[in-house]
Amino acid sequence: MQMQSSCSLPRPKSPPMARSSIIPSSLSDVLVFTAGAFLALLIFLGLYSFLSPTPIPNRLFSFSPSFSSTSSHIDDTYDPPDETFYDDPTLTYTIDKSISNWDEKRRHWLKLHPSFSGGRERILMVSGSQPYPCRSYHGDHLLLRSLKNKADYCRLHGIELFYNTALLNPSMNFFWAKIPVIRAAMLAHPEADWIWWVDSDAIFTDMEFSLPLDRYRAHNLVLHGWPELVYKKKSWCSLNAGVFLIRNCQWSFDFMDEWASMGPQSPDYEKWGKLQTSTFKDKMFPNSDDQSGLVYLILTGRGGWRDKIYLENEYYFQGYFAEIVGRLENISARYIEEERQGPAVLRRRHAERVFASYAKEMNVQLGKQKGADTGPTGWRRPFVTHFTGCQPCSGDRNKVYSADNCTLGMYKALNFADDQVLRIYGFRHASLVSADVQPLPFDYPRSEE
Amino acid sequence: MQMQSSCSLPRPKSPPMARSSIIPSSLSDVLVFTAGAFLALLIFLGLYSFLSPTPIPNRLFSFSPSFSSTSSHIDDTYDPPDETFYDDPTLTYTIDKSISNWDEKRRHWLKLHPSFSGGRERILMVSGSQPYPCRSYHGDHLLLRSLKNKADYCRLHGIELFYNTALLNPSMNFFWAKIPVIRAAMLAHPEADWIWWVDSDAIFTDMEFSLPLDRYRAHNLVLHGWPELVYKKKSWCSLNAGVFLIRNCQWSFDFMDEWASMGPQSPDYEKWGKLQTSTFKDKMFPNSDDQSGLVYLILTGRGGWRDKIYLENEYYFQGYFAEIVGRLENISARYIEEERQGPAVLRRRHAERVFASYAKEMNVQLGKQKGADTGPTGWRRPFVTHFTGCQPCSGDRNKVYSADNCTLGMYKALNFADDQVLRIYGFRHASLVSADVQPLPFDYPRSEE
Questions:
Q1: Between chain B's N and C termini, which has fewer beta carbons within 10 Å?
Q2: How does pLDDT run across B199-248, given as a tens digit for each residue?
Q3: Residues of chain A neighbouring B35 (CB-CB closer than 8 A)
Q4: Which residues are CB-contacts of A88 (< 8 A; sequence separation ≥ 6)?
């Protein structure tokens, strides 16, 4: 690896180590002192460059030698020839074959690629949709806007996003399709500490919010759900399997093997269908599904997985759209009011790259306000609004919801989110249901008083 | 700024500086030497932490104090309170008002945000499409796949992507709509050295290729085009205005003001329509358009802009789809053959984050092969394949092209690109026209011999 110029200082000259008999003793003390100083610096620089390389952007491949980049920096795209798990012919990306010792394999890879070690935890967001057009009129357009929404969130938060449109295992379709994708992503991204699966119909409606990862340090799988609904109500809806965080570790590979064994490609598929249907009285269709399967594993404790599964419900890790969309106008108005009444810093224009600083300021402001809570009675922006049951692509929505409720609701949520991004570019939507945008005056919204 | 933990080592204890008279002289030498060592380390750590802050990922805003991130590092999202251009009430994001002294304003902002200075040049890719569903059946699905394609390219190359779906100036629609977006993006991203506008119907078909930015160091605007077609043929198609690089500088703001003055919101719109139509005999419609306007400025030298405009044609900075799509199967087969015959490193599985290293290896391999050129007779992957004239969203394609040619062509290009990404996840398409994917065996494609 080449050294980053800011890390590699010119090496000092070799220190004089012997004291000459003709040198006076005070001067010899000075020489010895200086020798110690130089040697310490040499050792320190050597150790430091070995232990703490600094992560910096990829140096890109050049079209031809004459077009090579002139800036020199540590190349974190360098892949040493040392053998890693990638060189093991028995390791596959497909779900049919188990993986073992992943933690060790990953650790070894990270040791060879130290620029990816340390610092904050890395998240790879993964989402996806079908490889052919949607049946419903708005379907693909909503998917497009939803992908843009995810890309916006990831750009603001320095998170990588992989959007997949390939069915990796032809038998594992619909909601089962994500498991092979997540597995392949873990192998392709050993630097990622977490994979964050987000369904295509889940929209980020609070661009300022970051996952409180410290909360999950003792767990490997995080979903939105309520233990009392699992254990007391035995409801298949006690959690939502459309948005989850899963740690990139051996436990997760083993867990996904068990989870996938309930899927359509498994010889036990029918058995699981019957078991889930008999266990969950509110399950709406007879076939085994990923969500009921998860609830089953938690409810019964089968396999011992539940100790590492965190059911989050203190914020909208994912929020049921029907209890959110009707409140979005009010939430939007309350935030504008906070910005109007609050300190000037809330209205200050700024670069997108310093977004997080201003998110922090807003958080401080909201912390002073009553009712600025997350949840159905609060007016804090919901983190994620999930249009579960709306099926915008196929149009086969749950008949409990009207088309308007779903489609219009999605546009509102998308515009609500877009406003938070467009703000940085000097604009906002004329309303949550309008595609039209308006320029924001200086010191908005105080300038509108 | 807080210090990155890997940069701040535990401070050593205070060194003993005086030599006691009861300590033997050899031991006293040791003490003096050690004292020198400690003092040097103290001084070095102090100077280093002061002079060399290291850029690292954003520290994210926490939901509440109890959920704060435990890792401490330099916060490059910090925005000092010092006044910048953002605090100037006369500066607007909208296109109707000119900006002046942008280079100085940007320089000042960068000085206050040193983590964004230096290193390789930063690019922000900008693209977009309309805020309502497409008229044609495949339209939005192709836009979705195209956005995914751009997101893939940007993820592989460490480039940020902003996809816009808002019409910022209601009068500047269709091809004019990009100018207000680019302008707003420059203001929102002062850290970006270049804005790379890429039309929604332009697909990245060589994931390994990086822009040779050194080539453009003396220019501010880069487009694909041919000077001879500008000056000799006087063709409105002598360049393509759907893909370009524009430097984030004062020249570009001034240029965009002039360029936009030919647009529908301008009182000179009709005059420009007549002027362009009379100048370019092959112009296909009477209204002023952005592309003809650009050619006009280069042809006539009006405004002196052309000295800073680079017409690139030595590679497919953007490539005309009709001369590309028929060759994609062959190109794909040639690359597979190179990987099969070439050194093992070309077939080695690897993490996505070290993609660039392997791109470099392939580039070396291709450099040895005859015919591995870019252009209509070579078999090098085209960098960008642009379906100009296909209008996948409205369906109002140029009748010279069949629907198949356009739609099928786009799917082929998208799958061709997707194969390069899916490879990293262990899969590839069954064919360029198939949505089905297959797992790749170890040592593919040599394993298929």
A1: C
A2: 999 999 999 999 999 999 999 999 999 999 999 999 999 999 999 999 99
A3: 33, 36
A4: none
Q: What is the mean pLDDT of chain B?
A: 86
Spatial CA neighbour of B413 closest among B380, B383, B439: B383
Say whether A73 and B418 touch across the interface (CB within 8 A). Answer: no
DSSP B283: -
Kindly report the pTM of this predicted structure.
0.85
Q: Which comes out higher in pLDDT, residue B71 or B316?
A: B316
User: Each residue of B35-59: pLDDT tens digit?
Assistant: 555 555 555 544 444 433 332 222 2
- Give B 379-418 residues with CB within 8 A of chain A: 418
Q: ipTM score here? A: 0.85
Tell me the angle at which helices A139-157 and A355-367 cross, rounded to the nearest 10 degrees: 90
B64 in contact with chain A, both atoms CB, cutoff 8 A: yes
Which residue from B47, B49, B46, B39 is spatially nearest to B3, judged by alpha carbons?
B49
- Positions in chain A whose pLDDT score sits under 70: 1-75, 449
Residue A421, phi-psi category: left (phi > 0), alpha (psi -120 to 50), beta (remainder): alpha
Q: What residue spans of B82-196 are helical by DSSP H?
A: 102-112, 139-157, 178-188
DSSP A291-354: HHHHHHHHHH-GGGGGGGEEEE-SS-SSEEGGGTGGGHHHHHHHHHHHHHHS-GGGT----GGG
Query: pLDDT digits over B152-186, tens only?
Result: 999 999 999 999 999 999 999 999 999 999 999 99
Among B129, B140, B437, the residue with its CB nearest the CB of A167 is B437
List, for residues B11-35, the tens digit of each pLDDT value.
333 333 333 233 234 555 555 555 5
For B135-138, which contacts have Cβ atoms below 8 Å and span 24 or more sequence positions?
B135/B393, B135/B394, B135/B395, B136/B392, B136/B393, B136/B394, B136/B395, B137/A133, B138/A133, B138/B392, B138/B407, B138/B410
Alpha-carbon distance B287 to nearest alpha carbon in chain A (angstroms): 24
Measured between alpha carbons, how far is A154 from B329 in angstroms, rounded to an integer? 34
